[in-house]
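Hey, quick one: can you model this chain's 3D structure?
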Amino acid sequence: MTEGESLIGLRRMGSLTPDYSTFCDSGEEICRWNLYRSRLIGYHLEKLGIPVIPTLIWWSEESLDMALSGLAPGQVSAHRRQDLLGT
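Sure thing. Here's the predicted structure for all 87 residues.
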């Protein structure tokens, strides 16, 4: 399969945004950076005409609002919540 064929397949099927780690002990700055990277890649995929389903990533009760920011109410999304207890 060529690179062009792969891109055509993605344009038909779509993609989830990357799910970068947001471990409780990695620090809030790292978690924010990983959320930013995930959204940035989703943005670029959309610019290429690829349908994107955002992966919601949050690491604490307080971070849920940030994880939801920029998403339309009722928008389809993938969900993952890092263990809030750090275990």
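One thing worth noting: The longest strand covers residues 55-58.
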